[in-house]
Amino acid sequence: MLELYVPVLVMIALGVFFGVVNILVAEYIGPRRASKEKNSTYESGMEPLRSARERFSVKFYMVAMLFILFDIEIIFMYPWAVQVRQLGAVGFIAMVLFMVLLLAGYVYIIKKGALSWE
What we know:
By secondary structure, the chain is an all-alpha fold.
């Protein structure tokens, strides 16, 4: 039974080995001198105008959380779509109920104005 895990363990060991070797080689042969130019931020060839440590609006976090919520919806829908014929009417009704609950949540979000930027 344990011999089934040997190929997986070998691949994990090889991945860790190559990762560690790459880090050590880069550390050994890489440049060690830091300068102001090397430590500066570089974006599209433009000089930085102000600090990158600015506060973001809470709206960005709200949109991110809503994206995760509806992304999880898709994660649940994909296996259901693959097995919909085997699940029958009970599986279909369960998914319709799930979708109705998510639609109600989406309508609530729209009514509360969580997606408006004003």
